[in-house]
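cron nightly-structures :: item 1 of 1
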Amino acid sequence: MQPHPRIIGFLGQALNHEYCAIQQYLTQASLCTLWGLGDWAGSFRHEAREELGHADLLNQRLLRIGMAPSAGTLRPPRPGRDLDEMLRQDADLEQAAVDLYAEAAACAARLRDHETAALFDRLRADEEEHLRHLEGLRAGLAGRR
């Protein structure tokens, strides 16, 4: 059965979003390395690896439904000028992912593509956890000022 064009569109948007997140987190990790903030660099690299895992899941789903993965054009990273700005930018990025995956899961469920809906629900839950983690980091950073 040919996948619905809306499902293909959401999978492409999701893949693009994940690659943008990888690029942003790796850029932030590099900046932190340059600033001598090795622990923060490691944390951002860890986030990039998690997003890479999400991209892999999306690639696999696209291949399973007979589509070639394509992320399109990536937007430039928004690394931030300091840690607080980085974490704010990342929270915005993660919130956008939560919103995208919620909409995509609902659409897939309406179209009775339960496997894709489950994937989007899993990704949404992961991104919600990332968002909570970032909010905790921001609170901890604010408490040290």
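cron nightly-structures :: done
The domain at 5-143 is CATH 1.20.1260.10 (Ferritin).
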